[in-house]
Amino acid sequence: MSDPIETKLAEMGLSLPESSPSRANFLPFKRTGNLLFLAGQICEWEGVPKVFGPVEPGYDLAQAKKAAEMCALNLLFNMREAAGSLSNVASIVRLGGFVSAPPGFGEGPMIVDGASELFIALYGDAGRHARTAVCVSSLPANALVEVDAVVELRE
Question: Torsions phi, psi of 85, nearest 5?
């Protein structure tokens, strides 16, 4: 493993999935210039949903953040597919996070932090990003979390 970002992942006890299949008729990513737009990824592993919503009373924040981290791992898989190497990412520009939750639930941003924290751990200051985190009534495959991203690639 020669990619420093994948080495960091391994040191954190994490790995990328072997695949990240699309659920519908869309591209997993689209590049324009140095910007890479990544389609939303739910908390699934190799196409199999793993964590389901909506958030329930007494939920475990650490487990919910791991679901958001799983979304980020799927995004990283697609970033590597698009860029050839995770080290070809110059900056994480923006994340959009969605949490399946009942009306009035206000902790969605803390759950999406699971994705944000992974990008910051991997890329340092280049991993810090603008972000939106909202709660919604449902997500594809009844997933708990979905995260999309815009990243800047090196030239």
Answer: -160, 145
The answer to whether 41 and 155 are in contact (CB under 8 A) is no
Q: Pinpoint the alpha helices (H) of 49-154.
A: 61-83, 108-123
Q: In sequence order, which residues have a C-beta less than 8 Å from that of residue 63 and are 6 or more positions away? A: 51
Q: Kindly state the tokens that stand for 82.
A: 């698009």
Amino acid sitting at position 71: C
- Which phi and psi (to 5°) does residue 38 adopt? -105, 130
The pair of structure tokens assigned to 77 is 């898989």
Global pTM exceeds 0.90: yes
Which regions of the chain does DSSP assign to beta strands (E)?
A: 29-32, 35-42, 44-45, 48-49, 89-100, 130-136, 145-153
The C-alpha atoms of residue 57 and residue 105 are separated, in whole angstroms, by: 10
Q: Residues 35-93: pLDDT tens digits?
A: 999 999 999 999 999 999 999 999 999 999 999 999 999 999 999 999 999 999 999 99
DSSP helix/strand/coil, 90: strand
What is the Cα–Cα distance from 51 to 147, expressed in whole angstroms? Answer: 14
Domains and CATH numbers, the chain: 4-153 (3.30.1330.40)
DSSP at 8? H
